[in-house]
Amino acid sequence: MTSLVRVSCRQLRPRIADLATNVELSTAAVRSAIDEGADVIVLPELVTSGYSFASVDEVRSVAVPSSHPVFDGWATAIRDGRPSACVVAGFAEVAGDGTLYNSAALVDARGVRAVYRKTHLWDREKLWFTPGDTLPPVVETPSGRIGIAICYDLEFPELTRDLALRHADLVAVPTNWPLVERPAGERPPEVVIAMAAARVNRVAIACCDRAGTERGQEWTAGSTIVGSDGWPVATAGALDAATADLDLRAGRDKALTDLADAFGDRRVDLYRPS
């Protein structure tokens, strides 16, 4: 594992229900990030399909299996430019039995290494998708141990704590954050949540949002990379990317002081599941 890892969130504008355009857009983004020296690339939630669906039939028209050629395209871009790199990105998945999932894949030079099916579905996602029933993976890569979460998952501290306890160095989070009102000068609430999750778990978090407006829904365009100390180190805003060089090993030490430890001080003898 290298001392510094370049993490890049590419904030794209996928087109709703336009698989061909989104395949081209996402593959170009991977190649661009590779050209800029990225080791870990994060793309938005449902980057291959768009988000604001009108019907389950529309979802099904752009849902793909994890064997789809789009993932081969990402892997080829990695092999051609930076064989040690990887990409984490969202897609509408159709399983072998026809079930639809809001999923994310981790792809490296060899192809798809892992697929995670979103376990916490937001609002109308419940009309189209089935929630996953397996906790997200933590994948060993040359850059470090990468865990995956998708958007609303971040609002459930049990999930990020579980990833941290399984020794994730970085949690890669494809997102689609709907724009919400907030007081002047304040960060988006989702970024505040990511900051808190990073700080209490001492793990870096890279959230890749999307930009633009889709069927009347305006997006936050709030892609943010948070260090293991809980402070943002890069934001995209109106730009198309947030990129930062991180020492992912820094989060492996959970000691806060000589006498305080973020994990060692947990009182698991008192905690009870609800």
Task: Give a structural overview.
By secondary structure, the chain is of the alpha/beta class. Helix content is about 25%, strand content about 25%. The longest helix is centred in the first third of the chain and has 17 residues, at about 20-35. The protein is globular. About 45% of the residues are buried. The mean pLDDT is about 95.
Task: Please outline the helices and strands.
Elements: E1 5-10, H1 19-35, E2 40-42, H2 56-62, H3 69-81, E3 86-94, E4 100-108, E5 111-117, H4 125-128, E6 138-141, E7 144-148, H5 157-165, E8 170-174, H6 189-201, E9 204-208, E10 213-214, E11 217-218, E12 224-226, E13 232-235, E14 241-246
Parallel strand pairs: 1-2, 2-3, 7-8, 8-9
Antiparallel strand pairs: 1-14, 3-4, 4-5, 6-7, 9-12, 10-11, 12-13
Number of beta strands: 14
Spatial order of the strands in the main sheet?
5-4-3-2-1-14
Largest sheet: 6 strands, mixed
- Helices and strands, in order, run as EHEHHEEEHEEHEHEEEEEE
The assembly state of the depicted protein chains is: single chain
Q: Beta fraction of the residues?
A: 25-35%
Rg, Å, rounded: 18 Å
Low-confidence stretches: none
Overall SS class: alpha/beta
Distance between the termini: 39 Å
Q: What does the overall shape look like?
A: globular
State the helicity in percent bands.
Answer: 10-25%
Mean pLDDT: 97
With helices defined by DSSP (H or I, 4 residues minimum), what is the helix count? 6
